């Protein structure tokens, strides 16, 4: 006489319960992101760098300015862990200030570029036809222009272009086009969806539909593009400062530090390598975070690589 076997429980998927309750989309996205080790390590590392840059000056002895008490051209020692410059700067103080200014430029550019690009791309995608064609030709112009050349040229001719916020505004002027193209492509696939038709039937204005319905549903690609724009802005600011068109002394940025020390890479390496290595680490962490966000928001990316 055979015994009846109890049916085995099927394994739970990401869409199933946490303590019996169905997971929300946000919970699933968060869980996938937390499982992305490179992204999590990068997020922690970027957080540590950011805290050290903004809180470090309150506890460290020297700032980024010249001090007569600082001996010139001293290699790393107990009093100056990253050495000093010929003029009498403490390199650690410069690194903290430079990281501050570089991150402020990068995140400002990311916010401004994302807002402008998202609104422009969503408007073009929603209206379509001649409006779309005209608006995207403007995007094409901004995309084919040599970005660093134009940004450096404008920064060199604008009064006050060496302040961090002026540099951020100039970079943002030329950094929104790629996001506009991404958002436009997403909106083209969303504008015929039932929820958009329902909003139109209810009498919603085009502006309300774009802001209230289309942009929230395009949030995934927008977030990823905004994250990657941070790294692009960091490299652009570094290139501008290296060419002496960006932030300049007495203020400082990582790119400006690299530019000032480019002739001392072999004789005084403590001036050249710390800002260079820090710049690379920041860009890598942001790229890994963007990769993790892309996988979390679109799990098909992860499935395609397996």
UniProtKB/TrEMBL annotation:
List each copy of the ABC transmembrane type-1 domain by range: 99-290
- Provide the primary localization: membrane
**Member of which family?**
Belongs to the binding-protein-dependent transport system permease family.
User: What are the boundaries of the region Disordered?
Assistant: 1-21
Topology of the protein relative to the lipid bilayer: Multi-pass membrane protein
Protein name per its UniProtKB record: Peptide/nickel transport system permease protein
Xref: PANTHER family: D,D-DIPEPTIDE TRANSPORT SYSTEM PERMEASE PROTEIN DDPC-RELATED, OLIGOPEPTIDE TRANSPORT SYSTEM PERMEASE PROTEIN APPC
Q: Name one Pfam family in it.
A: OppC_N
User: Where does it localize?
Assistant: Cell membrane
Keyword list (alphabetical) reads: Cell membrane, Membrane, Transmembrane, Transmembrane helix, Transport
Question: Which parts pass through the membrane?
Answer: 39-60, 105-127, 139-158, 164-183, 222-247, 270-290
Q: Which CDD domains match?
A: TM_PBP2
Phylogenetic lineage: Bacteria, Bacillati, Actinomycetota, Actinomycetes, Streptosporangiales
What organism does the UniProt record list as the source? Nocardiopsis aegyptia
- GO cellular-component term (any): plasma membrane
């Amino acid at each position: 006489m055979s015994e009846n076997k109890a049916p085995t429980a099927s394994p739970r998927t990401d869409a199933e319960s946490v303590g019996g309750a169905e997971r929300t989309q946000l919970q699933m996205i968060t869980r996938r992101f937390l499982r992305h080790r490179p992204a999590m390590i990068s997020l922690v590392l970027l957080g540590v760098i950011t805290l050290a840059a903004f809180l470090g000056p309150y506890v460290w002895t020297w700032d980024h300015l010249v001090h007569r008490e600082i001996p010139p051209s001293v290699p790393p020692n107990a009093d100056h862990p990253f050495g000093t410059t010929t003029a009498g700067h403490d390199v650690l103080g410069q690194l903290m200030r430079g990281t501050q200014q570089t991150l402020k430029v990068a995140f400002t550019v990311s916010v401004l570029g994302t807002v402008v690009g998202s609104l422009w791309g969503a408007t073009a995608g929603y209206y379509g036809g001649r409006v779309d064609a005209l608006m995207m030709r403007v995007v094409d112009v901004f995309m084919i222009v040599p970005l660093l050349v134009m940004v450096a040229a404008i920064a060199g001719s604008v009064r006050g272009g060496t302040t961090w916020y002026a540099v951020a505004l100039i970079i943002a002027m030329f950094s929104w086009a790629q996001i506009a193209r991404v958002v436009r492509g997403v909106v083209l696939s969303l504008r015929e969806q039932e929820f958009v038709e329902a909003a139109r039937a209810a009498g919603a204005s085009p502006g309300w539909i774009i802001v209230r319905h289309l942009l929230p549903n395009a949030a995934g690609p927008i977030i990823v593009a905004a994250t990657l724009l941070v790294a692009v802005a960091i490299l652009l600011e570094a290139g501008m400062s290296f060419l002496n068109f960006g932030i300049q002394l007495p203020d400082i940025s990582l790119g400006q530090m690299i530019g000032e020390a480019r002739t001392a890479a072999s004789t005084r390496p403590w001036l050249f390598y710390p800002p260079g290595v820090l710049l690379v680490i920041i860009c890598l962490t942001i790229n890994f975070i963007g990769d993790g966000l892309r996988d979390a928001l679109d799990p098909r990316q992860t499935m395609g690589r397996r």
